[in-house]
Amino acid sequence: MRSLLILTLATVVSVVALAASSTTAVLDVKNMSCGTCPITVKKSLEKVAGVTEVRVDFAKKTATVAFDASKTNAASLVKATTDAGFPATVRQP
User: Fold this and answer.
1) Whose CA is closest to 48, among 26, 74, 85?
2) Using one digit for the tens of pLDDT, what is the confidence trace for 13-32?
3) Which is nearest to 81 in space by CA: 35, 23, 37, 33?
4) What global pTM score does this model have?
5) Which of 10, 22, 23, 47 could, after both became Cys, cross-link 69 (CB 3.0–4.6 A)?
6) Residue 37 to residue 48: CA distance in whole angstroms
7) Selecting from 1.20.1600.10, 3.90.226.10, 1.20.1560.10, 3.30.70.100, what CATH number does the domain 22-90 have?
8) Distance (Å, rounded) from C-alpha 56 to C-alpha 69?
9) What is the chain's Cα-based Rg?
């Protein structure tokens, strides 16, 4: 019984630690003018180490990116899209 309690506690602590380092940023992306642009933006962001999820909205010209803050930051995301030909800025809350 005691080992089950310790195992459960260790699992909860691990999950909380993972969730604590997860961050989401919304980028306003320029130059998206066709249906393939969001694909290029998404692929450029997915190549950044620590990115866990990318959603690009062509109509709103945004990219919502979930990432591990211990591995990357918003400046790296902006650099990735800019290097791909799509300058971006981080939307402020």
Assistant:
1) 74
2) 444 445 557 899 999 999 99
3) 37
4) 0.77
5) 23
6) 18
7) 3.30.70.100
8) 20
9) 17
